Amino acid sequence: EPDVAVEILPVGFVFPGRTLLFALISASTLTGAVSASIGGERSRRTLVVLLAAAISRLEIVGGKALAWGGLGAITAVSAASLSVALGNVEAGWWMLPLPTVPIATVAFGLWLVRRASDVIAGSTVSLRVLPALLAASGIVAWFLGDTEPYLGALVPVGGALIASGDTWPEPGAIALSTGVTLAFSATCLWITARDLEEVPTREREPRRRTSRLALMIGVLGALTWWIPTLIPLLWAEAGNPVLTRDLLASTGPGSTAGALGLLAFSVVWAARRTRSSSAPGTAGPRDLRVTATWALLGGLALALIAPLAGWLPLIVGELSQAGHDRLALALQPTGAGPSILLLTIVADELMFRGWLPRLIGPVRSGLLFAAIKAPLDPLGGLALASILGLLGHRAGPFATIGARLVWAGLAALIPALIPAPPPPMALIVAVGLAALLIATGRATGRATGRATGPTAPPGG
To answer: Per-residue pLDDT tens for 25-42?
Structure first.
């Protein structure tokens, strides 16, 4: 006494249906054809004839993709239609992403072998990577989609593969997986056409090295920031109410750990730095009044673009809503105390507006900031990255740190003073302030150039 009620609750994993095999078989049988497509043309000296013809490189690559990808898509759809006609499966939304799986497989395979010199080189790459792509992306999409179908749908190829198995009942997730996979296919084909040459050269090696470096930093930065910030959500899913309440009450510990991790990136870069110079066009030292002016204008712009966060949300469930809220609180941890707020801001600005733009460029650095700090708020993250990137380019990291502090102060004061402006007005004002920032930067640059003569630095 008292009696204890014991109830066994099995885990309700949703396994993909047999229709997954239609997409998987149609895609896996195309690896041999892809491996011989460009490498075979190059070894037989027929690629030079195609490049000299009155057609574009994109038409060459698109024709190969439509030939093999179209064959796989027709095969998959025909098998699915026959199975539906025989009454073995029921028709549904799963038929929408089905043809995109072989198309994406061919597009990614052409990207893999775009520099292959012969069939053997193409076969070595494609036969190893394409099956791994299908398996890995499918497993990731399945695990993510078991918690939130829309998250699984964001995985290229894998999302469409799992959706083809009639796994998710939501038509929106199925349509999203189809669109993401088609966009992935188009990107692969465009890059393949750009790099298609008669003889592979090494001219683009620095660009590829920069892209690989940006990808590596993005993955490591995301793990560094997301793990301490979002780990409490796993405890919430585990069902411990007391521990969950304590962990979700404040983002201070998570923000501190994530900021220290991002700050470690800056420390490592500074320790390994040998003879690096400032990027062209980056502003040099400025006096306190100019920096304060830029910081004030930037803080106002950041405060006014805050209502844009709800325009294009990727919030489709309870778990993603909780993740969005925690990431938003950790981005500006005003409730965690001034020391944690300052640590988070300094770590962000030293990395994303300090050394990282010199290493991979300002555009990639801004995209990484938006993807790492606000992955579930793409419009707000890109707007924030644009404003801060402009400030960092024109006035340096001290202005961006000041703008973040001004934004934090206004975020604490504005709700108590005036209501938030509606999104259209906020967008108009934010665009106006951005134009004012650009005009101010140009005017300051011309004034400094007249004062210092022709030896003034390019940034003003």
So the answer is: 888 777 777 777 777 777
Q: Would you say the pTM of this structure is higher than 0.90? A: no
With tokens 């190829």, the residue in question is 157
Whole-number Å distance between alpha carbons of 246 and 268 = 34
Q: How many CA atoms lie within 13 A of 421 on its CB side?
A: 16
Based on the number of CB atoms within 10 Å of its own CB, is 418 exposed (0-12), middle (13-18) or buried (19 or more)? exposed
DSSP 404-437: HHHHHHHHHHHHHHSPPPPHHHHHHHHHHHHHHH
3-state secondary structure 207-242: HHHHHHHHHHHHHHHHHHHHHHHHHHHHHHHHCCHH
- Let me know the angle formed at the C-alpha of 380 by 375 and 306, rounded to the nearest 5 degrees: 135
Could you give the CA distance from residue 250 to residue 229 in angstroms, rounded to a whole number? Answer: 10
- Nearest alpha-carbon partner for 360 in 156, 196, 213: 213
**Cα–Cα distance for residue pair 138/97, rounded to 1 Å:** 13
Could you read off the pLDDT of 265-316 as tens digits, one per residue?
888 887 776 544 444 444 444 567 777 787 888 777 777 766 555 445 555 5
Helix (H, G, I), strand (E, B) or coil at 54: coil
d(CA 221, CA 41): 41
The C-alpha atoms of residue 325 and residue 258 are separated, in whole angstroms, by 16
Contact call for residues 434 and 302 (beta carbons, < 8 A):
no
Mean predicted confidence (pLDDT) in 139-160: 85
Q: Number of helices (H) and strands (E) in the chain: give both, helices first.
A: 21, 0
Counting every residue written for the chain, the total comes to: 460
pLDDT digits (tens, 9 = 90+) for 75-85: 888 988 998 88
Q: Quick check: 414 pLDDT over 70?
A: no
With a CB cutoff of 8 Å and minimum separation 6, the contacts of 210 are 359, 360, 361, 364
